[in-house]
Structures are given as structure tokens and as C-alpha cells.
Amino acid sequence: MDAPAPPAAGPGLPAIQALAADDMAAIDALIRRRLASDVVLINQVAEHIVSAGGKRLRPMLVALAGRATGQVGARHHQLAAIIEFIHTSTLLHDDVVDESDLRRGRSTANAIWGNAASILVGDFLYSRSFQLMVELDSMPVMRLLADTTNRIAEGEVLQLLHVHNPDTDEAAYLGVIERKTAVLFAAGTRLGAMASGADEAAQQALYDYGMRLGYAFQIADDVLDYSADAQALGKNLGDDLAEGKATLPLIHAMAQADAATRARLRTIVEQGDKGAMPEVLAAIRAAGSLEYSRARAREYAAAAEAALAPLPANEAVAALRGLARYAVERDS
To answer: Which residues of the chain, if any, have pLDDT below 50?
Structure first.
């Protein structure tokens, strides 16, 4: 397949972060304030994962979508905090399911406090996000977020069904991405527009942008598991393989390989054999699977950029374009 052109240039990540800095400071303050609990363990676990850093991409999308369509205020900040709480709860649960011990370069909560604490604090964050939703007193907001959270849960179960399953194909893989990653991106961008009073056309444009960006981001993330520097990535390379997850680079390699190599790769997926990483990398390189996967990510990034066409030209829209480029060019 011909590699698509990268999305139109926008500002780089530092400029985007600078544009959203005031909003992000307010969002971070709100997150920390609303994390507070009388239960000490909740505070410890929540502080551990929140203080781990990360780029806060999902709440930033809420703020930028709001700025792209109007003014941003406290309502946007609360919606952004809700999105981040939902995301953080999924991280806590994912690390238990995946038996992960490293995230963002530090020990996972389950590695420190155990699986039970991680699951229960994840539940706390889900419930806190719904408390924040109710405070906004908006049925459209609650409907969108409830539907989104339900889709994420479906995605978690779908992914579980595909673990150690070498028959997972690209369509099934994309179905998991849509539910586990893309729907939360899309909810955030639509909510930002809703809070700014944007019309349905603008809301839909930003929803489509968020959905396509989510696909681009996750595919690029899965490429990094086979190509990045472990220290920059902040997790162990080959974790997807060890967990029995066939992501796009491996799915493509299996589809392109000769019969003997395909049979070997199937066995590796079934066993979650991280020790076979050199064999897998050789097959992925021979098939051009990293290039294929990067091209697919660029397709989604370009589609995300195209979805912004109906919106007026302004700094926030330019920043959203820049995030489409960042999603597929990052190294961590």
C-alpha cells in the first residue's frame, strides 16, 4: 500500500501545551481536589497514578475542543476531570488484568499495593467521575459519558477474548481500539464542543476527529511496543507479546509470513512467549509490518485532520491538527 502523506502541519507539542497551559493548570487542580477521600489508601493509590505524569492528552482535548468552538470555563474543566478519572480507572484495572508491573517508568499500583487495592480504587474513580457528571445536571452529558463508559467496558472484555488468540485479525483489533481507546477521545472532543454551545455539526466534526485520533494514537502506541526505547516508553518492551496480545504489527506479520513462520508466530502468541521477541521482531521486519502499521496510523491521523475542515480557523483548531501529527510521530 502507498504510505499516505502525514497530516497537515500544526504546532508542535510544546506550543500546544503552552496554549492549553492555563486550562490544564485548572484541570489538574480540580483533579487533585476531587480525588480526596477520607480513606487513606484511596489517596495513596490515586496520588501515585496521578503524579506519575503523562501528557494529560484526553483532558487537553476537552479544553482544545472547547476553545476551537468558543470560550472555555469551569464546566470544561469539570468535564476534562471526568474524562481523566475514567481513563485513570481503566489504567488501574488494565494493569491488574495484564499483570503489568511498570507504567510511565515507575511501578504500577498493583505491583505496590496489590490487585485488590488497584481494582477497588479504580472503582472509586469510576464512581467519582459519575458524581462529577451529576453535578453538571445535563442529561446529554450523562448519556454520552454513560454510553462511552459502557463501550470501554465492552472493549476490555473483547480484548480479553482475543488474548493468546492468533486468529485475531485487523478488523477485530480495530474493534477493540474503537471501544478501549477511540470512544473516550471522541467523547472528550464532543463534550468540549457541547460545553461551548457549539452546534451539532461542529460537535459531530470534533467527535469524528477524536475517534480517528484515538485510532491513530493507539496504533502508533502498539508500534512503539516493538520499536521504541524502553526508557523513553516508560514500560517494558514486548509487554503486548508477553500478555498474548496480537497487535497490528504482529497481525500483519502473521498474514504476510510463509507457512512455517506463521505457525511459529501462532505458537508464540498462544504461549505469550516474550523470550521469542527476537524471532517476532525478525518476522515483523521481514514483512514490513512496522511500516505498514505506521502507514495505517498516518491514515487515521490524516482522517482526523480532515474532520476539522468544517471548523473555523483558529489557534485551537491548529493545535488539534498538531496533535494529529504528534500522535503518529512521538517516540513515547
So the answer is: 1-3, 6-7
